[in-house]
TrEMBL record:
Pfam families: Glyco_trans_1_4, Hint_2. Residues 728-752 are annotated as: Disordered. This is Outer membrane protein. Residues 728-746 have a biased composition (Basic and acidic residues). InterPro entries: Autotransporter_pectin_lyase_C, Hedgehog/Intein_dom, Hint_dom_sf.
Amino acid sequence: MFLRDTAYNILTRAACCAAMLRSAIMSDSADITSSSSSGTHLVSSDVSIGNGAVWTDTELGDGGELFVEDGGLAVNTLVDKGDLTVDTGGVASGVTVTGDWNENGYFEVDGGTITDLTVENQGWGIVNSGSINNVLVTDSGYIEIAALADNVTVSNGGGIEVDSTGVVRNLTVGPGGTFGIRPGEGGVIDSVTVASGGTINAADISSAGGVKIQNGGNIDFSGMAFQSDGSATLEGDPVLTLTEGSVSSSVSLNGDYSGEHFVLSDDGAGGTVATLEPDDGTPCFCRGTLIATERGETAVEDLAIGDRVRTASGALRPIRWIGHRSYSGPFVRRNKNVLPIVIRAGALGDGLPRRDLSVSPLHAMALEGVLIPAICLINGVSILQAESIDQVSYFHIELETHDVLLAEGAPSESFVDDDSRNMFHNAVEFNKLYPDAAPLPAVYCAPRIEEGPILEAIRTRLNAEAGIAPVSMSARSIEGYLDEVTRTVIRGWARTPQSENPLRLSIFDNGVAIGEVVADCPRPDVGADCGFCFVVPGGLTPHMRHVIEIAQADDPGTSRNVLGHTPWILDQQTISHRTIVRATVLASSTTMRGYIDNVSRDRVCGWIYDPSKPGESVAIQVAVNGTIVERSIANGRRPDVADVGAGPERCGFDLFFIPPLSPLTRQVIEVRNERTGALLGQPVVLEAANQFDSDLEEAVRRATGSVQDAKGYDQALSFLAAQMERLKQSHADHQSRRRQNDVQRERSRRGLALPENRAPRALVIDSRMPDACRDAGSCAILSHMTALRALGYDISFVAADEMGSASTQTMNNIEICAAPFYSSVEDLLRRQAHSFDLVYLHRQSIATRYLPLVRQYQSKARVIYALADLHHMRIARQAAIEERPELMAKARQVRDAEYAAARQADFVLTHSTVEAAILRRDVPGVEVHVVPWEVPVRKRTPSFDARQGVLFLGNFSHAPNVDAAFWLAEEIMPVVWRQRPDIQCVISGADMPERVSQLAAPGVEVIGPVFDCGVLFDKARLSIAPLRFGAGVKGKILDSLGAGVPCVMTPIAAEGTELPRDFTDATGETAEALAALIVNLHDDSTTHARLVRAGRRFIRERHDHARIIDALGRIAGDTRVKRQAG
């Protein structure tokens, strides 16, 4: 973040003022004006401490300045409206600085030290000399660093800037955090960690002295325009290279990125952002795979959207989309989720596949009416997994619905989006092709089997038909390693523990021997002359895939003694772009018998291994309340168990209870080894759902009341805190339906249930609970939530500044997220991570605070930034009216924050056509929508003669309404009274300050807030909106027109509303013009009636419920229609 000129001038002036005050005022004691209930001293004068003096628990109020000099120590200081200066030899610890970017909330370090420093809420400061450490800069806090700063975290709008003499060590960039080195100066930033949700600009990496990206961290290549076919590759130390079309850019990173990859997306400002994500695999075909089409067999990489492929049923179906993704060998070594599976020709029976077929591990083959992932079919000989690759490209074909294609003649699944589309490089392409496509539950064309007796029977049949007797790793008589494979040279080492004689090895390419080599070269690293180097005669062609295996010569093909780290796959070469992913490293541990991972009323899962029979999968029984309800074989993949050496990979089980167990009954679940009857762990007890009753509450109350000593308090509090945390997370899982959705998805995949159409979820965030009687913003957000409900969304709402208690806050059909279940918005986003499809942020302050967190915790959600109005326009106009130049600086700051939020959101929503045009002009590329809110139209209203006077409604927490009230009472109405002293004025609204209440006088009635504004409208002949500054659409005007009351207004008040031409007769700019309009319309029943009709017609046409649904549906999508279509 680089300092703007205005802010820099403010900082410089403040620093000079602080220096002068320090030299001029050196009092020996503080003027303590009052004490808070917590004992904190509120200081409003100058304090200088040194020579061993210690000040604790201090808050600096208006005029409070604290100087910590040589030998002085300040502990726990809140710098709110005052200044803190730490000179040479002075120390301050536990400092919080919060301010307003003006004259408040400022600190300066001139040779001293501050530890445990938090700068937030527009607090700021300068480190001229000395040091700061353990620093958090957040919520628009800012620090200029010209000395040493260690262990610094910037997040949520916080930022630092480093001058020429500044040194920052161990910097962590969190969500929304920014940093920079002042251009042309030689500041140093050493060791940067970009945390999940944080972003670093690629241009800053070269000067940062070592950058590590954590999972979810971002690198913004702001100078590279995003393209859907761009790629990100990791190579070398590592070096990340982005390629967008013909343009490439590279940055050097620190750290190990095993099992991770970078995904590219639009940064919202014309550039490209690369986000680090974990690699969890997805089903795909390898390059060169021949797919049956209407034109014959075609390589998968040569297919295009619209081509018709032939399914196993013989039907021809058009391709809807083709996903593609690439990996490079050094970054996926030993990553079983990524390394391809090779199915040898004929391995599936009936001569299928006709050629060797290579697919990703999770790609399913259709066998005997079920779908089985390729990794579940591995036998080590006819179906095997690569141990190494040089590079591999994956492709997948999506049809309108899931189906079975013919790959190398073998039945193989098409793509189904089971929350896996974003794994592909070109996922953005799908969104551009099908912008209205709603997320639908994955519907599989056949049950997907990954464990159990059906899988075991198929595996046994395939192995028997092929005559395979695989040699287990433990039974191999040779040891060694394949170090390197290129298209010309194959290197490694091999030996037998039983003999010192050199081994003769056979080299196989795609199962065909291409030569022999003797392992007799020196290998001092392994302690013997057992190395080999084989030069491939003529080299390996780049136009096909090569599966390289090394075996002891003369071994029979079905029991080959294969060298470790083989097979090694060299993929078919291509010029296409690729993303490179690194693999995790295997670990080892002691052997375990098993564990029940999870038990619910829907499922039971875990793993079990019988060490006495290491080659067999364990048959299990699941008993509920003593009755056997399920039998299965524990042969599901558990690479985590194998990785730590606790058991073989195929030892898992995951069973569903059909139907689910009753929640009204106590359930005791047991898992047993069917052969021995041995119990796996302890029985798991699920108590009946109604067990937490008043008796149990009383028992807990008595138990906690009996605690008497410190140890007991610690134990009780630890236990209760753990249970509270567990209950909170369970409540969040229930609200988000995470567990129910996971169970339903898995049941659908296995063919145990039909897929359910999940209602999309929307989270709406505002600062306060909406109250239609308080302000127009509340009316707008209530209307939009109602429209989202009509569009098929389930709505959750959170009030950031009023977490309160959920039990006291209710809205129809809207879930309120509040205490005690959630302590903050971040707590909600984290507990319900990745469960919302849409997040609606109301007002700039909310967007600035939470948009980075939304991107971190709800990465799949579309984000709407809803402007109440362009706040910076309102402030700038106020500055002009009140002749306050300091407000103009604030307007520029707010403008930058509003535009930054707009760039980060997927959609910007405004109510004003004028503000929409401004946003499109000033923030190009941002998708802006004008969405009004619903305003009711009253059918029956009192007659003209039954009404009298003029009404001004407003929320007086807004400065424009306060100014308008004074202008109305002090300048406009006196002009009216010169002609018509009988016309009364009523001022009403929420959050009314005392100075507005004091406007009450003969002819002016001030009555504050009312529950039903309709009562006031029924009495008034006119309303007025005398705003001299402001922005956005004014709710007071819309409500008045809907109530059948014409409104006299200024051009500022009418701005962006697109009122009918009739209301030109009701618009005036000066006090005299407005007064004349009031008098004329108050007496002219004909014009009054015309404006009543025009106003009500305008509200019906522009602000009815159907129009709101239509406008919002263009952003959020009408999921009702889409779910029915799906």
